[in-house]
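thread: overnight batch results

M.L. [08:02]
morning all. the overnight job finished for the chain we discussed friday. pasting input first so we're all looking at the same thing
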Amino acid sequence: MGYWDSGYEPRETDILAPLSYHSAGGCRSDRSGSRCRRRVVHRDVDRGLDGPSEPPATAIRAKAYKVEPVPGSHEQYFAYIAYDLKTCSSRDRIANVTASIIGNVFGFKPLKALRLEDMRFPTAYVKTFAGPATGIVVERERLDKFGRPLLGCDRETEAGTVRPRNYGRVVYEALKGGLDFTKDDENINSQAFMHWRDRFLNCMEAVNRAQAANG
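M.L. [08:03]
and the structure it wrote out:
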């Protein structure tokens, strides 16, 4: 389907992603590199997502432009892939980009092993990220903590095992014990057993109690 293009010259606006892989026996290196990308990007082509004012999907699909053997290895290669920025559905969400590039390619059966070695983000893409609203200086001023590291932790909780009241109690013990801050575990959002509002109210009660207890 044309994903292998040895004559392609990466542009400054391309996202570049070198991958190392161990091909299955008898599988050509250039075909493996090309099929790595086809596994991820063939969907837009097959579904016919070309609109009347959009460039053809075939023009912006990812391109495997170089494959090199890993020095001193057997059937291991580096595949260099270039992605047009238009393949990224959202310019300001890094999780979307990594999911689009990595996707389910790691389950590709013709390869014995596959690893993403690096990613190069073009300036045009990086500038879409506004960055944090504040920096470490502002955080120190808010906490009134200077001259030492800020201490914090998240709370590892198994889904469904901790209710908001107990969650707040853990926050209180952590802050009263000397931590400057705590944070939610990445698996906690607003589930039925841990609604966000209930967790917020219990956590703020814990913060206020801890401040009153230790200053």
